[in-house]
Amino acid sequence: MNEFAKRIQRLQDRLQEKRIDGCMITQNVDIYYFTGSMQTGYLFVPSAGEALFFVRRSVVRAQGEAAVRVEPLGSFRSFGDRLAEVYRALFEDAASSSRRLRLAAEFDVLPVQQLQRLEAVLPGAEWVDGSMIIRELRMIKSAAELACIREAARVIDLAFEDAVQTLRPGTTELELMSRIELFIRRQGHLGIMRMRGYNQEVITGMVGAGEAAAIPTYFDGPAGGQGLSAASPQSAGRRPIQPNEPILIDIGCCIEGYVIDQTRTAVIGNLPDDLVRAYDTSEQIIRSIEGRLQPGVVCEQLYMHSLQMAHEAELSEHFMGYGDDQVKFLGHGIGLEIDELPVLAKGFSYPLQPGMVIAIEPKFTFPGRGVVGIENSYVITENGFEKLTVTREGLIRL
Amino acid sequence: MNEFAKRIQRLQDRLQEKRIDGCMITQNVDIYYFTGSMQTGYLFVPSAGEALFFVRRSVVRAQGEAAVRVEPLGSFRSFGDRLAEVYRALFEDAASSSRRLRLAAEFDVLPVQQLQRLEAVLPGAEWVDGSMIIRELRMIKSAAELACIREAARVIDLAFEDAVQTLRPGTTELELMSRIELFIRRQGHLGIMRMRGYNQEVITGMVGAGEAAAIPTYFDGPAGGQGLSAASPQSAGRRPIQPNEPILIDIGCCIEGYVIDQTRTAVIGNLPDDLVRAYDTSEQIIRSIEGRLQPGVVCEQLYMHSLQMAHEAELSEHFMGYGDDQVKFLGHGIGLEIDELPVLAKGFSYPLQPGMVIAIEPKFTFPGRGVVGIENSYVITENGFEKLTVTREGLIRL
Fold this sequence. Notes:
Two copies of one chain form a homodimer.
Chain A: H1 3-17, E1 22-25, H2 28-35, E2 40-46, E3 52-57, H3 59-65, E4 69-72, H4 79-86, H5 88-96, E5 102-105, H6 112-121, E6 126-129, H7 131-138, H8 143-165, H9 173-186, E7 205-209, H10 210-213, E8 247-255, E9 258-267, H11 273-290, H12 299-312, E10 331-333, E11 340-344, E12 357-360, E13 363-366, E14 370-373, E15 376-380, E16 385-387, E17 396-397
Parallel strand pairs in A: 1-5, 3-4, 5-6, 9-17
Antiparallel strand pairs in A: 1-2, 2-3, 7-8, 8-9, 10-11, 10-12, 12-15, 13-14, 15-16
Helix pairs in contact in A: 8-9, 11-12
């Protein structure tokens, strides 16, 4: 059984457990995960039997890419009748037991209009949210997925070393970011890191120095950044980088669809003692978390442990953002998207499992002065973890 | 009255016309359009009275950016009670006439989960689709918006001239694209061009040459492109550009939130006669369309006119893509997003109005050989049009 067939089989197992008759997958990334193609259309996965990818555009290209059977979507108006015909047993089984067909869709990303269109062509169906099922399946990575993430880790390491080597007083954040982006783009970076969250955007991460890095923003991460304008209010701005201030380089790239996410802190000259101490605390936290990274450990506990360590270092107020703008997590899953499961945060009771890939990012924010911290990405293994990030650690003194 | 107050006033006029009590705006771009800030939260615009921006994150930053009053969102659970308290007259008016409060949201982009959350905190309300109201308001640009688009046009022209000057046989599409991206990024390009369409992504447009440019893809545009992999199946790939094949350079940038979109066709050496003729036809079409660009002309008629011209040139099969992969439009509105109204396509009966900004892109696709064409962006004026694109026209021979 090929990898895509296995993924679909696992989805079908979950659908059966939850007594859902089928799942209608529409989001580009989810379609890619289950088919190997990112053409537009509707991937219908019945609770049992063959999945079919009804493609709007491009049918020819989907036929060459997809691991599941491709059918031209044709007229959307007749899509409901078409499904009822192809999946007759499924539809008849529901009808014969006088119940509505129960179908799942990705309610976390599916726009309301799109659901209404589906409801119109399948008027007898009851729609339920299938997004957690899909996100939980995607949480565990295969060997092929890990290979892509390792390649992204290799590329971002080269880009990082290239970038810091040319960093001088007066280099602007945007110049530094542009150089990183050029490097990774030439290596095959997609140009963005895909995010699932509504209204969230990340181009290549966040490069920020001194007070600019500590400016809060809408972005759901511990460091905000000045950005270019109110129309792009995060990450790198046009401020020249100064000596003796922390330079936060929180970057990633997307290679073959898979992202990596890492952070290093650099300085031209020296940092004040209290910021060095905060940086050292971030490394102590990540080392202590590493000691707990093994199957069975509960995600929430890792977050609580980091809060405790920040508290003991008397840095609670600065941990993962400052004051009202603190974010309430220590790390997040990565894969095809930058905001995958699991999240290391309160309320996430997932036990760690082999194949989970998690970016862990203890950081400390000092308003008016900057952000320091570290972030590595890890895969959980049978016995513990493997660090995927290959970039050298420690405060990078330039 | 400032620009943002005028925008909100126009929205309120439309809400009153449609007997909608208020509009809950949640999408980052729409929030920016009405407030000048892109922080996350809920912008509530009642059909009459003061709009309020309930901000989740960052409140401090929103207070500094937004032209409307900002309130911390606080607990989402009590958001419904909060609204009922602040907009007591509105809620009581609905209650006293025994009708449900009628609220609009952006159903074209709002994920189902987000609507369900709103329904849960405002259980008495009836939700309707307000996306066309907002998209139609945004269709007409102000002087300030036009200034941003003109700046983007200036930047992309410089990037284009810089890029073609270094183009040599063997330069890959990705190298050419990376160079353009570096140039525009350093000038303040956001890094992507925002798109409203579900599953649609555009980083910096489409650079493709020869057969690679003619490969169809999911992207809703006339040229597809090979892309980097099945996980990024459009635009530039790694193929070296050859002499005597068409090089399609369909690019844009996003400056202060506003995009420009333009296409030029280049060649190292010479093109075969039939492709030169097709290119010339694209220029003839755009000249003929320019002759019709004035207030009152119906969008759909411009598209039908271009179909007619392609037919007369015996190039119908190649127009705007090839065969089954043809797209059914000639142009599209641009502004904060690359896929705005109006669309020059069948079924779009909007008459042109001063302030509309439209990218018009007649192109011809030859499978196995390439894509040729031209694209300019225009603003409709009182008497006709102004061309916003400043890049030199004609087939660019290198």
